[in-house]
């Protein structure tokens, strides 16, 4: 193994080649080329096989990264694929969109020694794409039928991961989602240049082929109440995510031309999928020829600015109230955006949307400085008096984060308890909500977070539901015996 591995001292870090900026700005295809077999093996061989793999412990799914890197370096690709998929329901998706710089790669031991991290995400993507190409991804095999059913509300990463595990355990699973395609934000929120949609669709098709039933265009509260679903199924999992956009609290925020990030991204993704979107066609959610300002500093903001570039915006500016070092978005995504022509106004916050007749034409912003740390330990931004400036803005996109919708009201379930943030309250021991037999997982519990955490939560919820249903089946059997 020593000959095949530990190459980090002689082999430099190398990522898959990026497409030229001029080319990639013109479409919504992924920007990275695929690793060739030899390059994937070479990069995997840089792993130091350290005694305490911090990459694995900092992965929410605790993927067995060192072992599948070793297998890749040794050419044992099918084994590596199987090991990668043993702990993750969507490894090729995590390989594309996980912020590896903050998780596995950010904690790589050889990075601490100055040799450059192992390209874990790129190898993970390569392995699973190779598995699909070679037919190594096995069909979803349902376990022996248990005669019990589970409803999953939400076809995003948490719901899909739970549905897969529950089906493997032998439960009948029905996934309900208000959209017309399964995938949640993987389909409608994340742009194609980060995650092409056929990558998601082959995963959802695998679930459908394995017996998971999808009820799309189904809105809980409109088409059935939570209580009605609970009566129909033996257990229910709520995995809706958080979709309510935080508002821009400045004068003029209600003007035409000020739009929420998710509405903008959903419209763009629908167009890329071949749908007719009237708000895109009439220009309301189309950046073509416009001066665009995106307010926010997270990954959603990066998705918006890079989408606007591809739609042919005249200019694209990202306004963020803290500095680059304190930006919550991925460092890698910021670099991509800068390469593509996005201008960043650091330490700047919106003061007012300007224009005439309630139509946005510009944005007045205040210059900021970082003051004392707040309760979270981050320095609080403070306005600098007399340092306002103006930006042209025909389209202002609000990317300030997301809050939960009012699920007790929407689901007609006032007994569904929520936290002071509006997220669903669950018992941390079993992931059950205040309604018996109703569980919750993903962003609707933890707040807006990463896809990899949603996958982890969905898998954990499936295990919790399984324990609950087994216990209830045993109790029912005892009662029947008496």
Automatic annotation (TrEMBL):
Residue stretches making up the FAD/NAD(P)-binding domain: 149-458
4Fe-4S keyword on record: yes
Record domain Dihydroprymidine dehydrogenase: where: 25-135
Keywords tagged on the record: 4Fe-4S, Iron, Iron-sulfur, Metal-binding, Oxidoreductase
GO molecular function, one term: 4 iron, 4 sulfur cluster binding
Signal peptide residues on this chain, from the entry's feature table: none
Domain of life: Bacteria
Keyword Manganese (UniProt): no
InterPro entries, per database record: DPD_II, FAD/NAD-bd_sf, FAD/NAD-binding_dom, GltD-like, Helical_ferredxn
NCBIfam families tied to this protein: gltD_gamma_fam
Protein name: NAD(P)-dependent oxidoreductase
């Amino acid at each position: 193994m020593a000959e095949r591995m530990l190459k980090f001292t002689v082999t430099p870090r190398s990522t898959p080649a990026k497409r030229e900026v001029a080319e990639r700005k013109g479409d919504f295809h992924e920007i990275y080329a695929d690793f060739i077999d030899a390059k994937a093996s070479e990069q995997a061989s840089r792993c130091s096989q350290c005694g305490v793999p911090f990459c694995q412990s900092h992965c929410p799914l605790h993927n067995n990264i060192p072992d599948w890197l070793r297998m890749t370096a040794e050419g044992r690709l099918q084994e590596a694929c199987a090991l990668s998929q043993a702990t993750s329901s969507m490894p090729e998706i995590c390989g594309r969109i996980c912020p590896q710089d903050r998780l596995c790669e950010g904690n790589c031991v050889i990075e601490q020694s100055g040799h450059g991290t192992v390209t874990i995400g790129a190898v993970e993507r390569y392995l699973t794409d190779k598995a699909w190409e070679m037919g190594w991804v096995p069909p979803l095999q349902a376990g022996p039928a248990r005669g019990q059913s589970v409803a999953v509300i939400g076809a995003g990463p948490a719901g899909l991961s739970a549905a897969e595990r529950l089906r493997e355990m032998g439960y009948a699973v029905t996934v309900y989602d208000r959209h017309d395609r399964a995938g949640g934000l993987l389909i409608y929120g994340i742009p194609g240049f980060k995650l092409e949609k056929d990558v998601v669709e082959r995963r959802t098709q695998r679930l459908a082929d394995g017996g998971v039933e999808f009820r799309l265009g189904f809105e809980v509260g409109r088409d059935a109440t939570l209580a009605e679903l609970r009566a129909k199924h033996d257990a229910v999992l709520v995995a809706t995510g958080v979709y309510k956009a935080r508002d821009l609290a400045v004068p003029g925020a209600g003007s035409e031309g000020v739009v929420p990030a998710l509405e903008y991204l959903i419209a763009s993704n629908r167009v890329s999928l071949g749908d007719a979107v009237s708000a895109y066609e009439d220009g309301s959610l189309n950046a073509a020829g416009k001066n665009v300002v995106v307010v926010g500093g997270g990954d959603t903001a990066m998705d918006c600015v890079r989408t606007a570039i591809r739609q042919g915006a005249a200019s694209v500016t990202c306004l963020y109230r803290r500095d680059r070092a304190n930006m919550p978005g991925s460092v890698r995504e910021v670099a991509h955006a800068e390469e593509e022509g996005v201008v960043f106004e650091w330490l700047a916050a919106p003061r007012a949307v300007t224009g005439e007749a309630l139509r946005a034409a510009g944005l007045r912003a205040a210059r900021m400085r970082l003051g004392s740390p707040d309760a979270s330990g981050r320095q609080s931004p403070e306005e600098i008096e007399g340092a306002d400036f103006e930006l042209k803005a025909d389209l202002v996109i609000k990317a300030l984060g997301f809050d939960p919708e009012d699920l007790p009201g929407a689901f007609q379930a006032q007994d569904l308890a929520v936290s002071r943030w509006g997220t669903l309250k669950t018992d941390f021991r079993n992931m059950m909500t205040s309604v018996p037999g109703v569980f919750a997982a993903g962003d609707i519990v933890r707040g807006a977070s990463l896809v990899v955490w949603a996958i982890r939560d969905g898998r954990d919820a499936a295990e919790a539901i399984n324990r609950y249903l087994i216990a209830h089946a045993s109790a029912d059997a005892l009662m029947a015996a008496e």
